[in-house]
Amino acid sequence: QVQVVESGGGLVQAGGSLRLSCVASGTTFDYVMAWWRQVPGNQREEVASIRTLGTTYYADSVKGRFTVSRDNGKNMVYLQMNNLKPDDTAVYYCAAHRGTNNYWGQGTQVTVSS
Fold it and tell me: Taking the C-alpha atoms of 49, 55, 57 and 62 in order, what is their torsion angle to the nearest 10 degrees?
C-alpha cells in the first residue's frame, strides 16, 4: 500500500512561481509519479509525470513552464511551476501509478490571480 501527501499550494499572482512537493510512504521506486489537476466541473487532467529513471511527460499547456522531478531516495516528487497563469488555478493531486495500482493524494489548492 502506498500513501501520497502533497504540500506547497497557495495563492500567487500571475507570472509568479510555486513549488509543490509530494511525499510517498512505502516503496515507490518503480512507480510512475505524476501530478494531475482538476477544476470543479471538469475532468482531472494529467499535468506532468516522471518515470523511475527520469523520463518525463508534460501536458502541452505547461511545457516550458513546469518541471517535474523526483528523489527516489527520499520518496519525494516535486513540481516546480513558473510563469503561472490564471488558467493554472486548480486542485493539484500527486499520484503514484504502477500497472492497475493507482494511489492518490488528497490534493492541494493552487490559485493564480490575474
Answer: 90
